[in-house]
Amino acid sequence: MADAPPRRRSRATFASVLGELLLTAGALVLLFVVWQLWVGDIIIGAQNNAKGAALSQQWEAMPPPEPPAPTKAPDGTTAVALPATPPHPADAEIFANMHIPRFGDDYDVNMAGGTSRARTLDKIGIGLYTESKMPGEVGNFALAGHRTTWGKPFNKLDKLKLNDAIVVETRDGWYTYRFRTLEYVKPTQTDVLLDVPQMPDLSTGERYITMTACSPLYSLAERIVAYGVFEGFQPRADGPPASLAPVDVATPSAEGAR
Predict the structure, then answer these.
(1) pTM to 2 decimals?
(2) Which single residue of 168, 191, 215, 239 could bond 175 by disulfide (Cβ 3.0 to 4.6 Å)?
(3) Does residue 200 form part of some domain?
């Protein structure tokens, strides 16, 4: 009986091993991207809203501060009654919450001093520019936030519609601004943060809000800038303002996504 031919051992080549390693690495990178851009954002966004809601509840449980006394304007009319302007918050110091009904009933995001990624934008949510005015103060209340990743609190800036409420909650009460317009600028165009945005030599005595984020999505090429104007202040003793009422988020915005 003839002997069976010897069995040949299969040997993995360097190329095949390298190919398998690259495929595995590619799969891991893809999973990381999915986590970072979608799953992680959902989780972090929900956590940020929960933190904001917890602070809102903490303020609500405290005795309400004394409402500001009405004042008379030079023409004899009653001027806007606002609390005393608080000190500018330190870097990463939480001082307020933001509510935007267009972004959902549960949108309740902490706001803190500074715009560094490491201390404020990545860990807290919305940052206040160093030279910004405070809520309700004459001038420009200027803010920054992520449009993608880390909970992306400003992801839907392009979905805002004319007169949408932008409500800033503090210990004293609620400051309501109304959205007016949207534009895209180069990152070097910092004049959007001036007291009167892009008008260095103009003084209007008005109160503005400016919200900035990177644009287009997943790019640093430009900045998307949303502007609003101050409408009024409601003391905590009077309860939440009507501006917090839900809106029909299914209604398309006047601005197209970019």
Answers:
(1) 0.81
(2) 168
(3) yes
